[in-house]
Amino acid sequence: MLDSKFSVALVGGGTIAPFHAQHLQSSLVLELIVIIDPFSLGERLAQKLGTSYFKSVSVLLQGLPDRQPDAHIVCVSSSLHTSVTQELLECAAPKEVLVEKPFSTDSKSGSNVVELARQTTHSHREHAAVDKDDLMEEGATIMLQFANGVVGTFIVSDNVASPRGWESATGDNPMFAKAGVPADSYRILRTKGTLSEPDNIL
């Protein structure tokens, strides 16, 4: 049994924030202690959950000088992920920063934050069903030519409807229809077996 829980701040109070809050409040080792959001949506969520609320990271640093969060979950709009994460790393010096996907909307800003994180703390994307370090953008196309001359085209996208998309496969976001049957979004291949997630089939 832990003497104290690992304290967590939610940065952003929008669509996905209540789902993070639900996981945090049901955890035996984590504790949601504050929501940071400049908008009224975040303030209302904090009131509903009975937790502290601050409009910005700088105000939080002044308002809770004796108890800063151990970790911050960044769940603001995608375009703000890197700028908010950078502010946290530079000002709050958290032990952990968890960033909602996509980690960044362009490679350059994402790489800059990763480099800053290497100098200060850990930066990664995490989900209750699987922990996975990643640097992701919304989509990409890849064309490969194999040794036998066959050409393959691969399309990777994080913003289209598919039963194998993470939100549909897990059903954790009501904005996306849940897949009617168990579906895998990721496969982790090892020499002694392969694990698919989030259906957890070995």
UniProtKB/TrEMBL annotation:
GO MF annotation terms: nucleotide binding
InterPro entries reported in the protein's UniProt record: Gfo/Idh/MocA-like_OxRdtase_N, Gfo/Idh/MocA_Oxidoreductases, NAD(P)-bd_dom_sf
Name of the molecule in the record: Gfo/Idh/MocA-like oxidoreductase N-terminal domain-containing protein
Domain Gfo/Idh/MocA-like oxidoreductase N-terminal per the UniProt entry, residue ranges: 6-120
Gene3D superfamilies documented for this protein: NAD(P)-binding Rossmann-like Domain (3.40.50.720)
Transmembrane annotation, as ranges: none
Domain of life: Eukaryota
UniProt cross-references to SUPFAM superfamilies, sorted A to Z: NAD(P)-binding Rossmann-fold domains
A Pfam family per the record: GFO_IDH_MocA
Organism: Talaromyces atroroseus
